[in-house]
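We were asked to recover a plausible sequence for a given structure. The inputs and outputs are reproduced exactly as logged, with field labels preserved.

PROBLEM: sequence recovery
POSITIONS: 144
GIVEN STRUCTURE:
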């Protein structure tokens, strides 16, 4: 498969893999320098890697998926703004001022993607996050 090398190469090498905290592999929707860490694109890529592994039994895709899920678990709290999600993390990486607050459509997309990933790889923290993010749709604050 030609897609796997794209995920294995760093952004500087012409791929989509960025590093968060020098340890966590993040697959960029829009490879930029500095990294933008767009949440929905990352979660879509994880679902794609899972599907690729399921369809082809390709171990590299499975490894990339597992690495990405570890990253998602670490980074997910950074997207939680207490009443909605951040679209990306440019407010951390590019000193762009305040967070890029996800429009409601993207917030709902974040919820659906996290539900899909949680159905593949169940995690108590994902469940707690889903409950809180769904509450934001009803005007509840997350107490973050």
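RECOVERED SEQUENCE:
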């Amino acid at each position: 498969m030609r897609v796997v090398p794209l995920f294995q190469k760093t952004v500087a090498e012409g791929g989509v893999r960025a590093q968060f905290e020098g340890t966590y592999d993040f697959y960029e929707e829009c490879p930029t320098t500095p990294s933008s860490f767009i949440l929905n694109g990352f979660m879509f890529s994880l679902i794609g890697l899972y599907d690729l592994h399921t369809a082809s039994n390709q171990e590299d895709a499975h490894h990339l998926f597992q690495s990405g899920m570890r990253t998602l678990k670490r980074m997910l709290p950074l997207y939680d703004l207490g009443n909605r999600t951040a679209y990306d993390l440019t407010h951390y990486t590019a000193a762009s001022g305040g967070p890029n607050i996800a429009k409601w459509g993207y917030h709902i997309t974040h919820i659906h993607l996290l539900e899909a990933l949680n159905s593949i790889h169940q995690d108590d923290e994902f469940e707690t996050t889903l409950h809180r993010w769904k509450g934001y749709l009803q005007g509840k604050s997350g107490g973050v």
